[in-house]
Amino acid sequence: MTVQVTTVALADLLATARVVALPLVTRFRGIRVREAMLMRGPVGWTEFAPFTEYDDNEASNWLAAAIDYGWNPTPTPLRDRIRVNATVPAVQPHEVAAILSKFPGCRTAKVKVAGGDQTLADDVARVRAVRELLGPEGRIRVDANGGWNIDEAEHALHALAPCDLEYVEQPCASVAELAELRERTAYMDIPIAADESVRRASDPLAVAASGAVDLLVVKAAPLGGIRAALTIVAGAGLPVTVSSALDTSVGLAMGAALAASLPDLPYDCGLGTASLLAADVVKTPLHPIDGCIPTGRVTVDNDLLERYAVAHDRAQWWVARLSRCHALLTTAGGGR
């Protein structure tokens, strides 16, 4: 029997809720500390960790995902290991080798580009450094997080094309921009992937049907959970890869459960990001081994919860946020 999100009382969520602040190895998405709320449901630990700048409507999807993962069994897995990519933040070229060393055996690297304090020349130098280290057989994808307009994206793809890109993720912010860019650069044969356009859309399937992209990047938490993401993938008719949102190993295990349930998984997944954390909530984090992470749930360590617990006022901020999101889910009738 599947538990609906609205049948889980707020008191049951708060009974085991703990909030942690985990330091990062290097700055990522403009932050050096990742906050997350952990809860223990009947079937295991789960995670509620929308980025702090997200509003309650968007964050409520993350809560639906947390309830689904903590209160419902995961779908039957089709694979017991998930091949993952390395993730290279917007670092200087001389720092790339140290970053890649944290992802042993990974044949694919996703490189962050279009950062606010970075130039295109910086991006090209970083991607070239990755190519040199991975060699000609390595796979490189770049992620702009919607940071370019159409002209900037077209110019950037020309500059980055000699590095032999697997695909470019969310080069522009809007679906209309992605569609125009795809038309302009079709001759370059560089696939375009949608991430933010999918998880922030009121109708994710409309993005797939628009013809604006070649593949989708799906994330379990922002899409409302494993089952919601599987429904989107089934209806999209496009290749997908599964990625994380700088999760703890609990959230990564949720993503791995989604990846393990997909009939087709043509691309390495962005689920190796525990290597970007300088601390975690489990004794054995889901770091890549031979380019893969295992599937299955993880067990949170109470000592680590204590060590990285946030201050009382910050914990109360998360409790208030959880309460507001729970109210939104209840008002929506659980139809997520």
TrEMBL record:
Pathway: Quinol/quinone metabolism; 1,4-dihydroxy-2-naphthoate biosynthesis; 1,4-dihydroxy-2-naphthoate from chorismate: step 4/7; Quinol/quinone metabolism; menaquinone biosynthesis. InterPro entries: Enolase-like_C_sf, Enolase_C-like, Mandel_Rmase/mucon_lact_enz_CS, Mandelate_racemase_C, OSB_synthase_MenC1. The keyword Magnesium applies. Mg(2+) binds at D143, E169, D195. Residues 93-188 form the Mandelate racemase/muconate lactonizing enzyme C-terminal domain. GO terms for molecular function: magnesium ion binding; O-succinylbenzoate synthase activity. SMART domains: MR_MLE. It catalyses: (1R,6R)-6-hydroxy-2-succinyl-cyclohexa-2,4-diene-1-carboxylate = 2-succinylbenzoate + H2O. Gene3D superfamilies: Enolase-like C-terminal domain. The keyword Lyase applies. Its EC number is 4.2.1.113. Keywords: Lyase, Magnesium, Menaquinone biosynthesis, Metal-binding. Converts 2-succinyl-6-hydroxy-2,4-cyclohexadiene-1-carboxylate (SHCHC) to 2-succinylbenzoate (OSB). Belongs to the mandelate racemase/muconate lactonizing enzyme family. MenC type 1 subfamily. This is o-succinylbenzoate synthase.
